[in-house]
């Protein structure tokens, strides 16, 4: 009787050593970017109820926080400002003495090797919570570009290594690139939120940044979650306008989009593992329903496998520790 012939794929799974040899996707703390919410005042470390383990911190806590980030091998942070003063045009966003500008200077003075990325938007700074100038009840695109460009230049002046505009106005990359170049910052890269969906996963962030719109929603400038081809149109447009990185946001429910963008775009791709994704995992872990470490590392592996080069995540510090434990 002839021996049954079939493939034996399990041969390459026989031991940890063999499995490590053939692993296709790897994780490292150097893949991570850690988001920080900075607030004005002193002695503030305000817990964010919907994001366990995440805080709004004042500038006097920055050194302690950055020492931990650096010690874990995380190479970059992204700053989100929570100002005391808000107005119709978000003037604190482009104030050279604004909270993000101050935080940037402090970090670069004390930790020059750390890459400081700054979120460039107006929503945290406007009294209405939208990402631009309001005219007749709507966000007015072109006047908003002027203020966003002023913000980017102010952030670069403060020492930011990378500008990350998240507003999704038409032409925002072109306007900011021109403004940076004219101000003498042609060397500063733009990390564009090129593919940003009008997602239900942003709720906890809006608690943290105090950026919930006071009327309406952001569906006229953020993308419909149902659309795939639109993502490619947005990504390609940002590339033509001068983007150096592209962010896909959110990440977990949009792995197909990360892969689509990766297949067509030849700049580093950033997967933004957003606040709602973080909060779901934390809530399930606190109830004992999941193994948080295994789930987070599996999620991150899926993001890298889909094509992401960088993962922006609130899990960054814990994940960096776990990667070292697991020898990823």
TrEMBL record:
Pathway: Porphyrin-containing compound metabolism; protoporphyrin-IX biosynthesis; coproporphyrinogen-III from 5-aminolevulinate: step 1/4. Belongs to the ALAD family. Pfam families: ALAD. It catalyses: 2 5-aminolevulinate = porphobilinogen + 2 H2O + H(+). Gene3D superfamilies: Aldolase class I. Keywords: Heme biosynthesis, Lyase, Porphyrin biosynthesis. CDD domains: ALAD_PBGS (cd00384). Its EC number is 4.2.1.24. The lineage of its organism: Bacteria, Bacillati, Bacillota, Bacilli, Bacillales. It comes from Bacillus carboniphilus. This is Delta-aminolevulinic acid dehydratase. Catalyzes an early step in the biosynthesis of tetrapyrroles. Binds two molecules of 5-aminolevulinate per subunit, each at a distinct site, and catalyzes their condensation to form porphobilinogen. Homooctamer.
């Amino acid at each position: 009787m002839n021996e049954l012939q079939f493939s034996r794929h399990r041969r390459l799974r026989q031991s940890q050593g063999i499995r490590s040899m053939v692993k296709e996707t790897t994780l490292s703390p150097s893949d991570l970017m850690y988001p920080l919410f900075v607030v004005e005042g002193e002695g503030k470390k305000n817990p964010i109820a919907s994001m366990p383990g995440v805080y709004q911190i004042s500038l006097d806590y920055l050194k302690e926080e950055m020492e931990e980030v650096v010690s874990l091998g995380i190479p970059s942070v992204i700053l989100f400002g929570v100002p005391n003063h808000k107005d119709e045009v978000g003037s604190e966003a482009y104030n050279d003495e604004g909270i993000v500008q101050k935080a940037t200077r402090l970090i670069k003075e004390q930790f020059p090797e750390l890459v400081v990325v700054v979120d460039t938007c107006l929503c945290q700074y406007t009294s209405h919570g939208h990402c631009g100038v309001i005219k007749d009840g709507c966000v007015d695109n072109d006047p908003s570009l002027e203020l966003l460009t002023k913000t980017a230049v102010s952030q670069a002046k403060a020492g930011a290594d990378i500008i990350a505009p998240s507003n999704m106005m038409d032409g925002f990359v072109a306007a900011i690139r021109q403004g940076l170049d004219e101000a003498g910052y042609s060397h500063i890269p733009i990390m564009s939120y090129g593919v940003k969906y009008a997602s239900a996963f942003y709720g906890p962030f809006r608690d943290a940044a105090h950026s919930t719109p006071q009327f309406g929603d952001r569906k006229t400038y953020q993308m419909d979650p149902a659309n795939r081809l639109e993502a490619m149109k947005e990504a390609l447009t940002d590339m033509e306008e001068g983007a150096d990185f592209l962010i896909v946001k959110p990440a977990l429910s949009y792995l197909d989009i990360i892969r689509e963008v990766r297949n067509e775009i030849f700049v580093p791709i950033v997967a933004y593992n957003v606040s709602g994704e973080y909060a779901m995992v934390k809530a399930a872990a606190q109830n004992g329903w999941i193994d948080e470490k295994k789930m987070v590392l599996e999620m991150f592996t899926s993001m890298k496998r889909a094509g992401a080069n960088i993962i922006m995540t609130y899990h960054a510090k814990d994940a960096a520790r776990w990667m070292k434990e697991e020898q990823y």
